[in-house]
């Protein structure tokens, strides 16, 4: 239209610009383009700049997509934050927004339904390492369908995975032994936070009336002797133990990428996962630091009653055929008579 007004109607550049509300320079540019190119000047043209100095280099784009594919294949977290952090370790600086744009352009992002806004979350976290440990166990299946239970201990402050092991069944003995193993390696916590499973607490046994003898199970007894506070979430509210619950999602995604047939093989996978989770994978809640960094950054807390932690020990035993048990005290073996009526009875000593 602008070109025809100049060529057909014989109007000047200024007259065309005034009539159609455009600049005189635009009319001049379009007319000169038509003179040089003919009718092809009327075809729409791309507005893409001839050069983009700030464009992400192609080799970085390829590396972003390769990291995404490798992380997903390995069952690891493959979000933009993780990829940006891993690239920073390779001395490549790129923002998480740029990573998302590259992933979206490469067809690596699957749209998800609208989630609950983060502003509505009520967060809590311990102020220091070993101030609070969370524990829970979950079920996984081997390749042949065998059900295996995995128990974990997680530091609330740093998300450091203190312990992770597989068992045919998680029992009260499993809880005390794994807790003790983690405590020997990392020190005792001030408090623990678990759900109300019978392996952790008996306070809800018999409809909330407890065991009936006024005592707790082995884990409750052990914590009381060590001066460690025991905390339990509200029934049917797993979000209280949200950190350890979220860990299971990450772990199961990792296990789905592997074909495990034996419990020993599963334990080897869990050990490798724990190392990667603690030392390699950056954590969003920690400012993209690793749990190992956060766990060792400041001094650890310790329980108020930790002075006598070496005095008490919980162990399982079985009354022998003569109705006796054997314990060691002050370097001596003592044989305590329980009674023949209790022969072959399992006890906590």
Automatic annotation (TrEMBL):
Transmembrane segments: none annotated. One of its GO terms (biological process) is DNA integration. GO terms for molecular function: nucleic acid binding. Residues 125-299 form the Integrase catalytic domain. InterPro entries: Homeodomain-like_sf, Integrase_cat-core, Integrase_dom_put, IS481-like_transpos, RNaseH-like_sf, RNaseH_sf. It comes from the Bacteria. Gene3D superfamilies: Ribonuclease H-like superfamily/Ribonuclease H. This is Transposase InsO and inactivated derivatives. It comes from Demequina mangrovi.
């Amino acid at each position: 239209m602008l070109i025809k007004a100049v060529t057909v109607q014989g109007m000047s550049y200024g007259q065309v610009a005034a009539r159609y509300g455009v600049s005189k320079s635009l009319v001049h540019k379009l007319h000169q383009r038509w003179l040089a190119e003919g009718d092809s000047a009327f075809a729409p043209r791309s507005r893409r700049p001839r050069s983009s100095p700030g464009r992400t280099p192609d080799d970085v784009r390829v590396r972003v997509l390769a990291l995404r594919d490798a992380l997903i294949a390995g069952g690891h977290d493959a979000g933009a934050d993780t990829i940006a952090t891993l690239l920073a370790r390779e001395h490549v600086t790129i923002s998480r927004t740029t990573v998302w744009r590259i992933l979206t352009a490469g067809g690596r992002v699957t749209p998800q339904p609208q989630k609950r806004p983060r502003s509505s979350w009520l967060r809590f976290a311990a102020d220091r390492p070993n101030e609070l440990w969370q524990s829970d166990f979950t079920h996984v299946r081997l390749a042949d369908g065998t059900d295996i239970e995995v128990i974990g201990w997680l530091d609330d402050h740093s998300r450091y995975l203190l312990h992770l092991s597989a068992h045919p069944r998680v029992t009260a003995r499993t809880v005390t032994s794994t807790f003790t193993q983690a405590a020997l390696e990392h020190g005792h916590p001030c408090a623990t936070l678990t759900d109300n499973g019978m392996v952790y607490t008996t306070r809800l046994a018999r409809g909330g009336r407890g065991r009936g003898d006024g005592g707790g199970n082995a884990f409750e007894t052990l914590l009381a002797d060590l001066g460690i506070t025991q905390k339990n979430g509200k029934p049917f509210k797993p979000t209280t133990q949200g950190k350890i619950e979220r860990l299971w999602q990450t772990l199961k995604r990792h296990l789905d990428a592997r074909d495990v047939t034996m419990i020993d093989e599963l334990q080897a996978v869990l050990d490798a996962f724990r190392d990667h989770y603690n030392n390699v994978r950056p954590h969003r809640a920690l400012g993209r630091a690793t749990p190992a960094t956060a766990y060792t950054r400041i001094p650890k807390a310790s329980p108020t009653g930790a002075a006598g932690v070496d005095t008490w020990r919980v162990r399982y035993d079985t009354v022998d055929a003569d109705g006796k048990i054997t314990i060691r005290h002050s370097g001596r073996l003592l044989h305590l008579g329980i009674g023949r009526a209790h022969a072959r009875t399992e006890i906590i000593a």
